[in-house]
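2024-03-11 09:14:02 INFO worker-7 job=invfold-0412 stage=load source=structure_tokens
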């Protein structure tokens, strides 16, 4: 599948998922059209721990992997949280105000965070399938 100079690090495969901290694109598969969103990828302990803490805004979304829950302590803004299973299918979407602790989702393996209201705008809801696309150089 051609993604305009980038290749998919994951296309539904459970084995071989090797993301690194960096930039990418979240592709939300819709019935009418696909939505592409700038994505920060946080897979190291340090990057996942920092997440969106201390920020006033987020441009696009942030993927935390592995993760099955999040908190919004020390956050300055409400966020939308999409919990993804191992096949990158959304198992739950929640909006969280600052200072909250999210409940762990048993089937969740990854979490996508974005500004409050963004998930609805992008068409992300329970059952939605997403893809994570990273630059070919970042996959090596």
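2024-03-11 09:14:09 INFO worker-7 stage=emit residues=140
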């Amino acid at each position: 599948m051609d993604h305009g100079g980038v290749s998919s690090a994951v296309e539904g495969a459970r084995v071989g998922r090797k993301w690194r901290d960096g930039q990418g694109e979240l592709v939300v598969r819709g019935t009418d059209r696909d939505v592409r969103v700038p994505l920060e990828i946080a897979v190291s302990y340090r990057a996942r721990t920092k997440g969106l803490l201390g920020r006033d805004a987020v441009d696009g979304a942030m993927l935390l992997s592995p993760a099955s829950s999040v908190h919004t302590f020390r956050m300055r803004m409400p966020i939308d949280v999409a919990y993804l299973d191992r096949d990158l299918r959304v198992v739950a979407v929640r909006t969280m105000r600052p200072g909250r602790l999210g409940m762990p989702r048993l089937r969740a393996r990854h979490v996508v965070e974005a500004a409050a209201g963004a998930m609805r705008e992008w068409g992300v809801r329970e059952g939605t399938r997403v893809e994570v696309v990273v630059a070919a150089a970042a996959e090596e």
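2024-03-11 09:14:09 INFO worker-7 stage=report msg="Residues 1-16 have pLDDT under 50 and may be disordered."
2024-03-11 09:14:10 INFO worker-7 job finished
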